[in-house]
């Protein structure tokens, strides 16, 4: 990856977990990750599954806790296919529990 | 039974044409090609929509810009798959940065071939994600009934912007029964702004001693210019404008400080330096306006009003951020603020204006940049539209053309696209044929969409192209001279095209101001005639746009008088 990403990773042990409700169709994931990647903002972890009747999905993201997170949330909220965005602390257990599969 | 309920069997292309007609679209610009031929076939049967055949898809995109920028209505452009799409992308990106409502309809290879590296296949959806407000890859003809009105709704609602609809060829050909037509997509109202924030803004405005009103392109997009001027007058607020906002307050209004930022008059940036309250209205603190952002308005509290919540606190943290439609917000702020003369502050601003005005050497000599621009303006009324390309000529015009009306001024602000001017002028002239459209261009910019001279001649548009020819990429050469030790490299053209013969070859009337016996009279005659005229004027290579903020420097540090 590039050096800017590397610097962020070094600097920040602190993480933020974002929970997104999104429409479930091809392309939504690209919209979401594109917002981060084109700002050279690395997404450390991604989980996504359909919810309910499958018309929508939930995406969990873990990203560096960074001054830009608030701006990223506002940019996410502008995306047409994003229904809601919630911000959680790094202590949210979703990634910790999935972490089992990465051992 | 109404006509609405009559069942018809139509293919996807016919459905799109019908939806565009119902949307009120009467003109589209594009170029046909393999993957969009079914749509063109359906379009050929429309009695309501006229197709403008551009000569390059980027030209088609900017023709749509011209219509959208001049009228505020969403405009449509078309391209085929592959290179048609990639050619169109620059115009779409330009619309994203300047918040211009466009709907781009593109052909795509048949659904079954997507992902197979088919002939003229490109990932249109993927390419357009970062430069559109939203995009669609349509999977069935039935979906078009939702997607097309939705595309128009999205393009026009909130902060306007471009929406792309990619339609595979098989979807264009798919026949379905249509029993009901959807409502046309219209702008949905923005959420109402927070009254408490408005109240805090009002008390800041009333309490401030040295406020400045900072108008951005959003004022034009929200038709808020009249309210903004009223606000300035009631509050005694000196007013600066971004490149996109020029014309929202007449430049010769007593409160106008004109353009701010990189090529502002010194007095404008100096006043900003001294202000204690900055009221940003539909402006996004672009770096060309603010200079080094941390040094911008260092003594000021900030009120920021914008329809896009993500703009609030993006560059500068606002003391009061108001998310809402500018018309609504200004309409509510206006009756609440105190009428003030702010005599002391206005006297100080007057002092700055007198001491550090914009210097316009040669303004009485038609053979200089400022003189030529003045001479053009002297021959036109405020009803004329002024389009530009990008570079020195654009900045000279921005500095000195007496813009007095919103939507009078069409320029590529955010993306700064050379090649923008001519096709945009064509689109504006077609949308408002009663107006004269003057397009200032440079010899670098004009070559980037010169093929649209053919479109203009074919349509007989009332465009007067004023080519300011210095055989250079002038703004590049200027920066190399000022900031790169005078190492002028790759910015002076060794071979000069004969622009007058080129224009004649495309069927344009021409005027060479350099060889005219009475250039002033000839210019007046050319500008008052109907139809396209190509006006050529040589500009001295040593002319610079001054003053100038050092790139990434603070606005207070300007080079030149």
Question: What does this protein structure show overall?
Answer:
The complex is a heterodimer of chains A (103) and B (561). Chain A is an alpha+beta fold. Helices cover 34% and strands 34% of the residues of chain A. Chain A has four helices and four strands, in the order αβαββαβα. Chain A has helices at 3-11, 28-37, 69-78, 93-98, and strands at 15-23, 43-51, 56-64, 82-89. A four-stranded antiparallel β-sheet of chain A has the order 2-3-1-4, with helices on one face. Chain A starts with a helix and ends in a 5-residue tail after the last helix. With 561 residues, chain B is of the alpha/beta class. Chain B has 22 helices and 22 strands. The model of chain B has no long low-confidence stretch (mean pLDDT 97). Chain A binds chain B through residues 26-27, 30-31, 34, 38, 70-71, 74-75, 77-80, and chain B through 125-126, 129-130, 133-135, 137, 154, 308-310, 313-314.
Any key phrases for this structure?
heterodimer, A: 103 residues, alpha+beta, Alpha-Beta Plaits, four-stranded antiparallel sheet, 4 helices, 4 strands, 34% helix, globular, B: 561 residues, alpha/beta, Rossmann fold, 3 domains, six-stranded parallel sheet, 22 helices, 18% strand
Cα gyration radius of chain B (Å): 24 Å
| Main β sheet profile of chain B | 6 strands, parallel
Spatially, the strands of the biggest sheet of chain B line up as 3-2-4-5-7-6
CATH architecture grouping of the largest domain in chain B: 3-Layer(aba) Sandwich
Residues in helix, % of chain A: 25-40%
CATH topology of chain A: Alpha-Beta Plaits
Task: State the secondary-structure class of chain B.
Answer: alpha/beta
Number of helices of chain B: 22
- What Rg of chain A is obtained from the alpha carbons, in whole angstroms? 14 Å
Largest interface: A-B, 14 and 14 residues
Largest sheet of chain A: 4 strands, antiparallel
If you consult CATH, what is the topology of the largest domain in chain B?
Rossmann fold
Percentage of residues in strands of chain A: 25-35%
The count of strands of chain B amounts to 22
Given helix and strand content, the structural type of chain A is alpha+beta
CATH superfamily of chain A: ACT domain
């Amino acid at each position: 990856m590039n050096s800017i990403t590397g610097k962020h990773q070094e600097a920040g042990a602190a993480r933020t977990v974002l929970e997104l409700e999104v429409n479930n169709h091809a392309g939504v994931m690209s919209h979401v990750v594109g917002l981060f990647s084109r700002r050279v903002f690395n997404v450390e972890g991604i989980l996504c599954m359909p919810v309910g009747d499958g018309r929508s999905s939930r995406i969990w993201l873990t990203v560096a806790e960074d001054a830009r997170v608030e701006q990223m949330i506002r940019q996410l909220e502008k995306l047409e296919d994003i229904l809601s965005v919630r911000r959680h602390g790094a202590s949210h257990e979703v990634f910790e529990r999935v972490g089992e599969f990465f051992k | 039974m109404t006509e609405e309920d009559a069942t018809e069997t139509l293919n996807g292309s016919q459905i799109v044409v019908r939806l565009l007609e119902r949307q009120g679209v009467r003109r589209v610009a594009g170029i046909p090609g393999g993957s969009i031929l079914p749509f063109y076939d359906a379009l050929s049967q429309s009695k309501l929509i006229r197709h403008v055949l551009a000569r390059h898809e980027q030209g088609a995109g900017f023709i749509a810009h011209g219509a959208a920028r001049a009228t505020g209505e969403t405009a449509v452009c078309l391209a085929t798959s592959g290179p048609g799409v990639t050619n169109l992308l620059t115009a779409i990106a330009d619309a994203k940065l300047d918040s211009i409502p466009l709907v781009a309809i593109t052909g795509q290879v048949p659904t079954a071939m997507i992902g197979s590296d088919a002939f003229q296949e490109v990932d249109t959806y993927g390419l357009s994600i970062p430069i559109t407000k939203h995009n669609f890859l349509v999977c069935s003809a039935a979906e078009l009934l939702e997607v097309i009105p939705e595309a128009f709704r999205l393009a026009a609602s909130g902060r306007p912007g471009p929406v792309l609809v990619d339609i595979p060829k098989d979807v264009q050909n798919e026949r379905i029964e249509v029993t009901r037509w959807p409502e046309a997509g219209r702008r949905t109202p923005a959420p109402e702004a927070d009254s408490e924030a408005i109240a805090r803004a009002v008390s800041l405005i009333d309490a401030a001693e040295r406020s400045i009103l900072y108008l951005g392109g959003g004022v034009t997009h929200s038709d808020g210019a009249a309210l903004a001027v009223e606000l300035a007058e009631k509050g005694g607020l000196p007013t600066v404008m971004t490149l996109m906002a020029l014309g929202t307050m007449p430049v010769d209004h007593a409160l106008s400080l004109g353009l701010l930022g990189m090529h502002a008059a010194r007095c404008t940036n100096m006043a900003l330096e001294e202000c204690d309250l900055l009221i940003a209205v539909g402006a996004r603190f672009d770096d060309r306006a603010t200079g080094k952002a941390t040094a911008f308005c260092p003594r000021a509290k900030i009120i920021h009003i914008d329809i896009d919540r993500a703009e609030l606190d993006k560059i500068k943290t606002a003391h009061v951020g108001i998310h809402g439609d500018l018309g609504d917000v200004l309409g509510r702020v206006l009756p609440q603020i105190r009428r003030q003369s702010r005599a002391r502050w206005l006297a100080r601003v007057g002092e700055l204006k007198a001491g550090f005005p914009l210097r316009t050497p040669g303004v009485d000599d038609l053979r200089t940049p400022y003189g030529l621009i003045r001479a053009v303006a002297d021959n036109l009324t405020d009803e004329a539209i002024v389009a530009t390309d990008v570079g020195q000529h654009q900045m000279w015009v921005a500095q000195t053309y007496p813009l007095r009306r919103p939507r009078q001024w069409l320029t590529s602000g955010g993306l700064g696209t050379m090649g923008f001017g001519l096709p945009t002028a064509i689109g504006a002239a077609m949308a408002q044929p009663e107006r004269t459209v003057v397009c200032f261009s440079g010899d670098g910019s004009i070559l980037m969409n010169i093929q649209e001279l053919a479109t203009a001649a074919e349509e007989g548009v009332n465009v007067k192209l004023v080519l300011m020819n210095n055989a250079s990429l002038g703004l590049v050469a200027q920066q190399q001279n000022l900031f790169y030790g005078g190492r002028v490299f790759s910015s002076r053209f060794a071979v000069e095209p004969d622009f007058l013969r080129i224009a004649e070859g495309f069927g344009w009337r021409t005027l060479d101001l350099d060889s005219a016996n009475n250039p002033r009279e000839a210019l007046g005659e050319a500008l008052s005639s109907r139809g396209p005229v190509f006006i050529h004027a040589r500009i001295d290579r040593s002319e610079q746009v001054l003053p100038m903020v050092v790139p990434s420097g603070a606005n207070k540090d300007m080079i030149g008088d």
